[in-house]
Amino acid sequence: MLSALMNDYGDNIVQLTYLIVKDKGIAEDITQEVFLKAYRGLDQFRQESSVKTWLYRIAINESRKYLRSWSFRQIFSTYLSKKELGAEEVADTNVEAAVMQRLSKVQIAERVMMLSPLYRKVMILHYYEDLSIKEIAQVLDISEDAVRTQLHRARKHFRALCEKEGLEWM
After folding, report:
1. Contact of 137 with 144, CB cutoff 8 Å
2. pLDDT tens, position by position, 35-51
3. Which of 63, 137, 155, 161 has the most crowded CB, counting CB atoms within 10 A?
4. How far apart are CA 107 and CA 100, in angstroms?
5. Model pLDDT, residue 104
6. pTM higher than 0.85
């Protein structure tokens, strides 16, 4: 069972955690921890959500735990010292689609990685992992309205990053 989970979701979990913590080695360590926790908690899995959502929830929690850890704060402070949509959202989405077409996948990923961890998580889960608002709410253990709000704010920050770098936001 564990090996099947690892084969089915291992690469996705590594990618998800990497996009949150921005370090491949740490992402791989977190992924190992995710599958250990999943294995230990398999008998407690209530099947109220899909296995994918359950694993993503564990991955998000483990990534959060890492980001809150002393070692991350130490590394991060060293790094810093060294250097259902409404009408308004539909318009934002159309503009967003036009900008996305002009940017390469690498450029988009770079800008997403520049977002705060809060906004980066919701963008990754929605756009890269193709989770619905409901699934994201389950993974992050927040309301669907909170997901919509975070996604809207993340888009605004993404747009601001693009504009700051001279990309016209039509």
Report:
1. yes
2. 999 888 888 877 777 88
3. 63
4. 9
5. 61
6. no
The residue assigned the tokens 């291992």 is 10
Q: Which residue has the tokens 């077409």?
A: 101
Report whether pLDDT(78) > 80: no
What are the structural domains of the chain? Answer: 2-80 (1.10.1740.10), 84-164 (1.10.10.10)
- Long-range (24+ apart) CB contacts under 8 A made by 95-103 are 95/159, 95/169, 95/170, 96/155, 96/158, 96/159, 98/170, 99/159, 99/162, 99/167, 99/169, 99/170, 102/167, 103/162, 103/167
Contacts for 116-120 with beta carbons within 8 Å, 24 or more apart?
116/157, 117/20, 117/64, 117/67, 118/150, 119/150, 119/153, 119/154, 119/157, 119/158, 120/19, 120/20, 120/154
Average pLDDT over residues 147-165: 89
